[in-house]
Amino acid sequence: MSSQEKTPEGDLPAVEGVDYDAIEAMLGERVLGRESHLNAEGFVVRPDEVEETLEILRNEAGFDHLSMLTAQDYPDRYESIYHLKKYDDPTQEVSVVVPTDPENPTSESAASVYKTAEWHEREAYDLVGVEYENHPDLRRILLPETWQGHPLSGDYDQDKPQLVTLQEHVNPLAESQEDSESDTMFLNIGPHHPATHGVLHVKTVLDGEQVADVEPDIGYLHRCEEQMCQNGTYRHQIMPYPDRWDYASAGLLNEWAYARVAEDLNDIEVPEYAQIIRTMSAELCRIASHMLALGTFCLDIYGDFTAIFMYAMRDREKVQNLLEDLTGQRMMFNYFRLGGVVWDLPEPREEFFGKIRDFLDDLPETLEEYHDLITGNEIFQKRTIDTGVLTPEKAKQYGCTGPVARGSGVDYDLRRDDPYGYYDELDWDVVTEDGCDNFARLLVRMREVEESAKIISQCVDLLEDWPEDERDIQANVPRTLKPDPDTEVYRAVEGAKGELGIYIRSDGTDKPGRFKIRSPCFNNLHSLEEMAEGEYVPDLVAALGSLDVILGEVDR
Residues 463, 467, 469, CA angle at the centre, nearest 5°? Predict the structure, then answer.
């Protein structure tokens, strides 16, 4: 369907809770046309009216969450899609589609409306080549500034040699440092430093001992995951890739993100039994992820390797053993399949359930020990309470989700608010803290481990009593999947770090025409500049650790 065509109202999908006709009336003549995406209506607007359109949708319609920006190159146009939601109800979604001239792909920036658009638009410019007018700092974000061309643009010459000059890394404060009376200093933290949690380069400007400005420099681990997924078939070749986004511990959560969007795209119904297995295994991954976050954070704060870090690794290993029994792997699981899971629970089932129950029975005492060692520790409290402050309003502006948002009192969790799997059938609570600081984010993760344990325990009870002749692990999925061309969908799950979403546009073949990943770590890391300003360097290190970023997912 052409972006300029209006869809007859009778063909529009009914989305509960969203009056798209009222939204169109609200936007008025700004709307050039409507597109029917599987998750939401898309309103096509002119590239010079993006800011006004988004302001109306945020201020008058309540769409305060910019999940992601997808840019793509068509033969006749470039296109930007702003995926909007509401923090109060993420099932209410709308897309703003902005087509631009292929000869001059220029569009108005959304950065003045949603702070998180700054990084998303920089990525779209870097990889696709769309330029955003009035952007406060439009330059490359994943590739070096000296890179020639835009890799996801149709006219990109991949054989052209690339040169990165030393001038790329010149001290940006060189001139100001010529003043002998200046207290301003430029400090590089990373990209190879234990406190940066991977290959992250933090460009830091200090005014005396305080942080005046922070710029996370990413892209050192950019692996073209989206492009690799576009080259793989829906049915068989894409599923192994998600394990490698957040490679530390959230593999099954990543797999579920792809499974959910691909199953919606291809109208696949997952058996109830498989949904319970998915829910149980995903929460085991969440515990493993939070244990790693706990151990490394404490290592950042007061360098306790022998006790707290190793205790956290010990308990993480217990979870990894359970996941290995289930999937055969310790990290790159490749256990989910479209329509279910690859195989049933390990035999003997009673022994596997016994291992899970033993782990869950030991968990309360383990967490009490952690609270004695960590949250009751005076050094830890001094380093984390009232440092790295992120208010709820700022968290929403940066598009933060997961424990980072919930640590700022933002009550947002897709497991409850946009139910999938078996979560809506179970008894558990969403954890929030109002501290808005580094301490609150740690508390959220520790309390979420308890909630995950409650979910796992209920799943085990259900699986134990499930009739043997009804244990369907997969739906009947065609060998080759070819969704209708120009079908578009964005779906997300609650990953260990927050909202992990994927946008897919089909082109009528067995491979996606466009595959875009919404990384929670990407958005959360952007907020570091807000959390660190005015703090000291040790507080900057604590704030970065509290975000629990995995650079493989940030860069993708």
Answer: 125
- Residue position matching structure tokens 């509401």: 86
Task: Count how many Cα atoms sit within 13 Å of the Cα of residue 456 in the half-sphere of its side chain.
Answer: 27
3-class SS at 78?
strand
The rounded radius of gyration (Å) of the Cα atoms in the chain is 23
Joined together, the tokens standing for residue 257 give 């993100």
What pLDDT, on the 0 to 100 scale, is given for residue 182?
Answer: 63
For residue 516, give every residue at least 6 positions away whose Cβ sits within 8 Å of its Cβ, in sequence order, or none: 68, 70, 226, 502, 503, 504
* Cα-to-chain-centroid distance, residue 477: 28
What CA–CA distances, in Å, run from 121 to 55, 139, 303?
Answer: 17, 9, 37
CA pseudo-torsion sign 351, 354, 358, 360: positive
What mean pLDDT do residues 444-467 have?
95
- Cα-Cα-Cα-Cα torsion 135, 139, 141, 144, nearest 10 degrees, comes to 180
The secondary structure of 130-161 as a DSSP string is -EEET-TT-S-SSS-TT--S-TTSTT--TTS-
pLDDT at 65: 95
Per-residue model confidence as pLDDT tens digits over 497-556: 999 999 999 999 999 999 999 999 999 999 999 998 888 988 999 999 999 898 888 988
Token representation of residue 373: 């060692």
Read off the DSSP letter of residue 511.
S
The mean pLDDT value for 159-187 works out to: 66
Expressed in angstroms, the distance from the first to the final Cα of the chain is 30
Alpha-carbon torsion angle 419, 518, 221, 335, nearest 10: 30
Phi, psi of 42 (to 5 degrees): -110, 130
3-state secondary structure of 355: helix
Cα gap 174→184, rounded to integer Å: 10
114, β-bridge pairs: none
DSSP class of 14: P
Q: Please report which confidence band the pLDDT of residue 180 belongs to, taking 50, 70 and 90 as the band edges.
A: low
d(CA 35, CA 6) in angstroms, rounded, equals: 7
Q: Which residues contact 348 (CB under 8 A, 6 or more apart)?
A: none
Q: What is the pLDDT of residue 161?
A: 82
Distances (CA, A) of 173 to 178, 179, 292, 393, 536: 9, 11, 36, 32, 19
Euclidean distance between CA atoms 379 and 361, whole angstroms: 30
Compute CA 316 distance to the chain's CA centroid, rounded to the nearest angstrom.
Answer: 22
Query: Rounded to whole angstroms, how far apart are CA atoms 521 and 404?
Result: 10
The full length of the chain comes to 556
Residues facing 320 on adjacent strands: none
Distances (CA, A) of 249 to 292, 355, 431: 8, 19, 21
Judge whether residue 334 has pLDDT over 70: yes
Beta partners for 70? Answer: 81
Distance CA 496, CA 505 (A): 26
Of 143, 156, 276, residue with least CA distance to 220: 143
Distance CA 218, CA 129 (A): 18
Highest-scoring range by mean pLDDT, 10-24, 147-161, 167-181? 147-161
Task: Kindly compute the dihedral angle of the four CA atoms of residues 441, 444, 446, 451, in this order, to the nearest 10 degrees.
Answer: -160
| Residue 7: per-residue pLDDT | 37
The strand pair at 41-45 and 31-36 is best described as antiparallel
